[in-house]
Every structure is written in structure tokens, then in C-alpha cells.
Amino acid sequence: NMERTSSIRRKAIARQNKGEVMIAGEQLRLRLHDGKLIKDRRYHLRTYPNCFVAEELIDWLVGHKEAPDRATAVCLMQHLMDHDILHHVCDKRPVLKDAKLLYRFRKDDGTFPFNREVKIFMRGQRLYEHLIGDKKSILQLREERGVAYQRSFSGCQLIDWLLHNGEAESRCRGLELCRALQEHGIIQHVAKKHDFFDSGLLYQFCINFRRRRRLSALLSESEQGNNEDVAASTPEDSNADSPPQEDNSAFQSVRLSKDLKQVTSGRRGSLNSPQLQSSGCPPLVQLSSVRCNPKSVLRRNFTCEELFAPGAPLIKRVLTVIGDAMGWGFVVRGMAPCYVQAVDPGSPSAAAGVKVQQFVCQVNGQCVLYLDYRTVTRLVMTGPRTVVLEVLEPLE
User: Fold this and answer.
1) Are residues 62 and 122 in the same domain?
2) Host domain of residue 333
3) Which of 64, 160, 184, 339 sits in a 20 to 30 Å window from 35, CA-based?
């Protein structure tokens, strides 16, 4: 039993380290968007949406004291590449090079891999955010065996909360979820002595999702946890920046831009693998073959007039999406009209009923039918956290 507990803890620590990389990568992505380093760029008469120049990023990291020198900055970004946080726009370079080469965050083109481990981690983020923001939060100063623990909760209280908020169908399901969160290093017993039980034992979140991460800490965590060697250079490839064989329409991930110095989100529910692939996301394996601009989920292009033609097989829906600290969790594409290209599994948008192939008609009461994806994205990102979408959904 002691060996099993020790093994679970080791796995939890390893998963915590991976989670820290995800959080640090997302925080960096949002900062680079705010700093305009991530933008559409032209190369050989092709437009590459939402990408950055590696050399400019290294300048930025050193200038903002995120890395002491360029070599360390390259190692940090390579660490993010190794964890599928970012990639070369054509997926022809497995390593990041300090040169005028284009790279992109996978969150910005919908190719981020949503395996079971990531889904559970993001679910934990979401629960954490909801619990922290709850005025009557169960996270309180509590005592166990004469020791007081900040922001702790009993096992039975958390399961009660999950049931009350529709996060679990039954106490059995709630217990399964909590044990999965513990196995993935998201929650733990306050004294690290017990597995999760539906009882009065006290537990805490292991991760402060709101804490600002220092990128330089990633390498030390990696060395301590996995002794990973991070590659920092690669032989030159004269054709490394050849344009991809895809259309150049943009693939923009809608995310919050204000009040986001931290990444705190989780996911409710999930899409299965075929759905992910059909929505432009890659399969859960073979990420090296992912194309830089996933194929459109639409079978053909539509005009605004077609959408409102008599007898059009579409139904109007009004959806209210309450964004969390990571954003809303959907991807829009298209020049006019815009449509939903992908939805993050279990995100606020998925919970609200946002689906792929829906056409976006209004954002917070403003007609957006004749606006391109950039303008629609800007409306969402600069608006309130609660977004009301009017969409047209194809009839099944």
C-alpha cells in the first residue's frame, strides 16, 4: 500500500510539472498577444495567421528578463515545443531556432492535443476558478488533528458542491472525479496521508492557478522531475519555411485579453476523437503530422444571403457563454459570415451549447454577419466576460 501511494505521488508530481508548463505557456501566449508579437505575417506571398518570429520572441524574453541570455531563452521555448505548446508553422522543425523563422502556439490554430490528462487538468482549473470565485466558497480555514489549513475542504463537502453545481451526476461519479484530480496532482490530502474519500478528511488544491509563472523555473522543474535534455539547435533546412499546402484563411482562438495575468480554466465534458478531428483539431497522436491550418469544418462556403433564404436548413439559437480566466473556448474562422471552427472540450462555450459549423450572427446584440473573424474576435475579447451569441445552427 505504501508503494502504491508513493507511485501515485510520483505520477502526480510529474503531472503537476506538466501542468505548470501548460499554465506558463498560456500566460506567455496571452502576454505576447497583448504585446502584438503574435500577429498575421506574410512570407512568400502567403499569410500565416497568429504567429511570431522566433528571433523577435527571444529578444522579448531577454528584454523582459524572462531569460538571462538568448541560449536560455531558446531552451525555454524548446521546452514548450516539447510539450506541444507551440510549433513551427509548417511543422518542419522539431526544435526552435533563434532565427527569422515563424512559429505558432497550438492554442492559436486549434491543434492543441486534448488527451485525457489535459482534460482532467483543465477540469481541475475550472473547478478551482469556480470555487475561488464563489462568495460562499467551501474553501475555508479548517482544522484537522490540531493543525489549521488555509483554503481547505472536506471530501464530502466537495462532492456535495459538485452535485449541487451539476458537475457530477452522482456521488459515485463525484468520487471518481475527485480521485482523478488527486491522481493528477491537482488536489491532495492536507497532510498527504490519504487517498480521496467521501468523508470529513480535509483536502486542498495543490496548484495556485492564479500565480504568475516564471518561465525560467520551467527548466529547473524539468531537471528535477525528469532530467530532460532540451535541444537548442538544429541543422539548417533551406526549405524550412516553405508555405503549407493549405488555404490562408485565419484560425483564431477566442480568448480573454483583459485581467489575464494568470491562466485558470478547466473543462466540463469532452469531444470524442472523431469530433476533434472534424473540427480541425488533430488526432490525439501523431502530432508531428499536424498541418498548420486545419481544414475548414464547412463543406462549402456560404453567403450571408444564403443563411436567411426561405427554407434554409438552419435554426436560430441564443447562447450565453460565461468566460473563465482562460477565455471562452471556441475558435472562429471565416471572412463573412464567421462560423465556429472548433470548441474546446468542456469549455464554457461547450457547456453553453456552442458547436462547430454554427454561424455567428450577433455578439452581445451587435450584428456581425458582415464582419470578418478579426473584428468578431476583437468584439468578444474586448467585451464583458459574459458573451451573448446569436448563432444559426445547421439542422441535423
Assistant:
1) no
2) 296-394
3) 339
